[in-house]
Amino acid sequence: MASYYEILDVPRSASADDIKKAYRRKALQWHPDKNPDNKEFAEKKFKEVAEAYEVLSDKHKREIYDRYGREGLTGAGTGPSRAEAGSGGPGFTFTFRSPEEVFREFFGSGDPFAELFGEWTLEASEWLNFPLQACPISWEALR
Fold first, then answer.
1. Strand spans (E) along 14-107
2. What is the C-alpha separation between 25 and 19, in angstroms, rounded?
3. Among 45, 40, 49, which residue's Cα sits nearest to residue 96?
4. Per-residue pLDDT, 77
5. Which of 91, 89, 88, 102 is nearest to 58 (CA)?
6. Pick from 52, 3, 59, 65: which is nearest to 25 by CA?
7. Cα angle, residue 41 at apex, residues 52 and 123 outer, rounded to 5°
8. Which of 49, 77, 84, 131 could potentially form a cystine with 26 if both were Cys, beta carbons 3.0 to 4.6 Å apart?
9. What is the SS3 assignment for 118?
10. For position 65, what pLDDT does the model report?
11. Residue, of 77 and 39, whose pLDDT is higher
């Protein structure tokens, strides 16, 4: 698996805002609902993106990751000491949340895809009642 920085396509010096913007872009790109033809691969990428954001957006987790890598977060390999981990345990063990939970927390409960399409996100029933008078092109111009 690529580094979290590579997954979000940001440099190691990325600011918190850069990481948020990158997560937003990548989460929308790899959301399984946006990739129905390649859902299994999209789910894998979506999970990686959520995991990367969850670590890089948290200052403490990011410091541990920068120092010890992914192994430092999962308790494998050479991880932080008790004092560095800030817990009473033998080291820091991080449990990743579901990618859907991270997505909901970031985007809220609304439709994150709606803003991509602006006011053109009408329901099918609304299109049936869409007034033709609202169209800027006259029928005569189409002939």
1. none
2. 10
3. 49
4. 54
5. 102
6. 52
7. 95
8. 49
9. helix
10. 94
11. 39
Q: Could you tell me the two tokens for 13?
A: 């010096």
Instruction: Note the pLDDT tens digit of each residue in 66-84.
Output: 999 988 888 765 544 444 5
pLDDT digits (tens, 9 = 90+) for 102-132: 887 877 766 666 555 554 444 544 445 555 5
- Portion of the chain with pLDDT greater than 90, in percent: 45
Q: Distance between CA atoms of 62 and 13, rounded to whole angstroms?
A: 11
Structure tokens at 46: 């979506």
Alpha carbons 83 and 69: distance in angstroms, whole number: 18
For residue 72, what are the CA distances in angstroms to 35, 50, 85, 108? 32, 18, 10, 30
- Contact between 42 and 32 under an 8 Å Cβ cutoff? The reply is yes
* Euclidean distance between CA atoms 29 and 120, whole angstroms: 19
The amino acid that residue 35 corresponds to is: N
